[in-house]
Amino acid sequence: METKQINFLGLDPISILVNNWINTLATFNPNAVVQLYAPDGILLGTIADNIKVGRSEIINYFNMFVEKKPLGVIKTMYVQDLGDAKVADGLYVFTLTDSLGKQEEVVARYTFVFKQYMDKWLIATHHSSKQP
């Protein structure tokens, strides 16, 4: 197993998957975001009060989260290619906007585990937590 830090703007397949998630989230369309997760995927969301299992629970989280108009930027990324699974760990920063237009920046740590389902790489597990 090789762990490497990558240029997250590069063409590494794993960074492309994470950047696709960031870009899809910026559409504020929870239906599009949830399609990036495996049907039985697991989400430990940054501001979730419990673990979300499966797309029907994951979409409930993103229905709430997109109301904050999240715009994310990846700051660091380390990748591991485990053969049948790909892992990305790092830091991202989100700008969140409340209903009155007040913005807040949230720095968070992330781990994405991608697995292939029917010739498509989907998020099997996603953990995100605020940077202490």
Care to count the β-strands? 7
Please identify the oligomeric state: single chain
Distance between the termini: 29 Å
Structural class: alpha+beta
Shape: globular
Approximate helicity band: 10-25%
SS strand fraction: over 45%
Architecture overview:
The protein is α+β, with helices and mostly antiparallel strands. Helix content is 22%, strand content 48%. The protein has three helices and seven strands. It has helices spanning 13-25, 30-34, 55-65; strands at residues 3-5, 37-44, 52-53, 71-81, 85-97, 103-117, 120-130. The chain has a seven-stranded mixed β-sheet with strand order 1-4-5-6-7-2-3, covered by helices on one side.
Compile the SSE list and pairings.
Elements: E1 3-5, H1 13-25, H2 30-34, E2 37-44, E3 52-53, H3 55-65, E4 71-81, E5 85-97, E6 103-117, E7 120-130
Parallel strand pairs: 2-7
Antiparallel strand pairs: 1-4, 2-3, 4-5, 5-6, 6-7
Which key phrases capture this entry?
single chain; 132 residues; alpha+beta; seven-stranded mixed beta sheet; 3 helices; 22% helix; 48% strand
